[in-house]
Prior knowledge:
alpha/beta, 12 helices, 7 strands, about 45% helix, globular, binds zinc ion
Amino acid sequence: xxxxxxxxxxxxxxxxxxxxxxxxxxxxxxxxxxxxxxxxxxxxxxxxxxxxxxxxxxxxxxxxxxxxxxxxxxxxxxxxxxxxxxxxxxxxxxxxxxxxxxxxxxxxxxxxxxxxxxxxxxxxxxxxxxxxxxxxxxxxxxxxxxxxxxxxxxxxxxxxxxxxxxxxxxxxxxxxxxxxxxxxxxxxxxxxxxxxxxxxxxxxxxxxxxxxxxxxxxxxxxxxxxxxxxxxxxxxxxxxxxxxxxxxxxxxxxxxxxxxxxxxxxxxxxxxxxxxxxxxxxxxxxxxxxxxxxxxxxxxxxxxxxxxxxxxxxxxxxxxxxxxxxxxxxxxxxxxxxxxxxxxxxxxxxxxxxxxxxxxx
Length: 361
Ligand SMILES: [Zn+2]
């Protein structure tokens, strides 16, 4: 029996449910409050961390939700449902949930932070020169629509297709969504400085995970993969022990890109999983990204451009902006009952598998 009540329609509701479920399960909670920003209803924003099991466990399975704000509604539901499943933990094992890693984006129902930053491109070393993405420089004027209408959108896609044919699938992915650090009003913008959410994540990792000897970090997303299915993105190199652990815990599909709807994955800059690994040099670290599939890639690219249009052009046309917003939200957080049931059923299984994996590795 799945409980659709795990899902929420606002950040405040999701946070309340998560906190309640964590307390009921006997987890220890720590909250990191955003000092400046608020949600749309004036609500305070937090990264909340629950620790179930011994605080000094040497094996820790970590699940993060909401790196991409709005994508956290399904991750939050998965976390809450798992906490309510009366889990029994193996010896010397803890399960740590990071809830709403980009709480501003979660509350405002967008992938990005208060500075239009993609948190999953923000974990770069800002002391070094910013990475360059010449391909994005070429795409930005194409993508940066002033007017949102079907003719204009079709013209953008024709130009994107021509670009992709010219440079190939990999260079197209790198340009489009690999991350860029030059256009503050662009898409997949990595920022000019660490976001508050970046610092909060690092503080939480330092506080809760430094004693772990074996640790797995799973980052939950939506938007890549087939409808009603989850897919895995494993970035550990071919032949590495970490990649073999992922394969043995979740099967071949954890490493073979089964179901991934991108023809070629971009080389991403500044991801949260890379930051996590770098922060725990003494531990045996496994990282995995899990995406719940929603719409085809073309629709998700459209949603990415809609996000930019709503933020930078939308205020001039609030009626249209509201319509575009409904489409955008459906692309990252479908209301469909079967989809939501699939999230709960599948997440229960892959979190259980991860806990078993970390405790027996
Ligand atoms: Zn995402």
